[in-house]
Design goal:
Blueprint lengths: L1 H28 L6 H42 L21
Helix pairs in contact: 1-2
Amino acid sequence: MSDVLSYSRLLALGLATSVIASIINQMATMFGFNNILKIIAVVAILAFGHLFNFAINALGAYVHSCRLQYIEFFGKFYKGGGTAFEPFKAKTKYINLK
């Protein structure tokens, strides 16, 4: 059940993206298309709004999917083993350096 809820979170991110995009479209069309300055304002609002929406939601989707993979799935399918990592260094346990 926890996996279903985790994937539901990703679904909610997608739905939120579409709602924010719809709101940006509505905000841009509130200006109307009477003269050239309003058309430039509409294009600027659409470009900035959709670019910002894409960037924020791409970052959110990356973070949530990484969390899903590394935290939830590694505990179920990854089995550790092998030897512990020891960095390369001089072992001076039985050596006296002068």
